[in-house]
Amino acid sequence: MALEDHWYRRTWLSRLLLPVAWLFGALTACRRTLYRRGVIRTFRARVPVIVVGNLSVGGTGKTPLVVYLARLLDETGYRVGVVSRGHGGSAHQPMAVSVDSPPQQTGDEALLIARSCNAPVWVGRNRPRAVAALLAADPCDVVLSDDGLQHYALHRDVEIVVVDTERGMGNGWLLPAGPLREPPARLAQADLVVQHGAAPDAEYSFELRLETARNLASGVARRLADFRGEGVHAVAGIGHPARFFAQLKRLGIACAEHPFPDHHPFRAADLAFADERPVLMTEKDAVKCAAFAAPHWWAVPATLVDRGSRIGGAVRRLLADVTR
After folding, report:
1. Is the dihedral of CA 113, 118, 119, 123 positive or negative?
2. How many domains does one find in the chain?
């Protein structure tokens, strides 16, 4: 059983790791206190910075929310810039991401953002340097940080924390005994807590709907419902592959599941299955597979549905408050 499997239950192994988790928590709290009191300096950008992050390890839907907010703020009249860590990419120094950038350099999430919204995107392992490089190149009004909640070297004006309703806080313990980078109490300090998934009582929540598929070789679009009865291979190298597989099954699509680690560097051999059934993959995976795509490979984009448009309204209000 993988360590991650123990994070969502209180097992013998997770209990065994509790002393390490307590040490991790103490170090994390100390580090945050040093930043908050100014002992360690933070970088304050000349424009508002909105951080979209989470407390737990693994995918919660941060990147689709960043894309949604970038589009929303662009429509509102803001010039938006985006920074990303560039997970899975080789870039050490800040670099701009274009729609044609190689994913091996920029990482999959940053490239997906660049292709999904009208905003300059920069990656960099050092967030303050990435923001500074972005602002030096583009006169943005606001910067969105994809992830980076725990990167306190970057001052943030608005914090948005995304919680996966399906997995929640796991067993409630910090790494490595559980999936949390910070304790659940940290949620109370965020400006906005957003639930991803079914959360009827949540004030702010969204879902990701799968409706269409795009052929990686030809670009032709097809209704996802048309794959019912065919039998497909479902590929997901994301933080929570089971969510993607379950969504396909709820649409009546019978699929052979092929989970891969998050940010997996795909090769053609990874998708060389024994038959020619359609291969459906997430958009995040597709940006790494397009260069060697076969005719029966399809990307499945996820459409974010902001329930009641409450998230968008709240972010606009928060941004208006910090720009007064």
Report:
1. positive
2. 2
Q: What's the CA gap between 35 and 56, in Å, rounded? A: 21
Token pair belonging to 303: 């459409």
Q: What's the CA gap between 195 and 201, in Å, rounded? A: 10
The pLDDT assigned to 295 comes to: 96
What predicted TM-score, i.e. pTM, was given to this entire model? 0.95
Same domain, 69 and 179: yes
Chunked mean pLDDT (size 10), the chain, 324 residues: 85 96 97 95 97 91 96 96 93 94 95 96 96 96 95 97 94 96 96 92 94 97 94 95 95 96 94 95 96 96 92 96 88
**Cα angle 41, 45, 48; round to 5:** 125
Residues 197 and 313 in one domain: yes
CA atoms of 89 and 223, how far apart (whole Å) = 32
CATH number, domain of 15, equals 3.40.50.300
CA-CA distance, 209 to 304, in Å (whole number)? Answer: 6
Do residue 118 and residue 228 come from a single domain? no
Domain with 173 in it: 3-206+306-322
Is the domain of 243 the same as that of 104?
no
Question: CA angle 154-26-165, nearest 5°?
Answer: 70
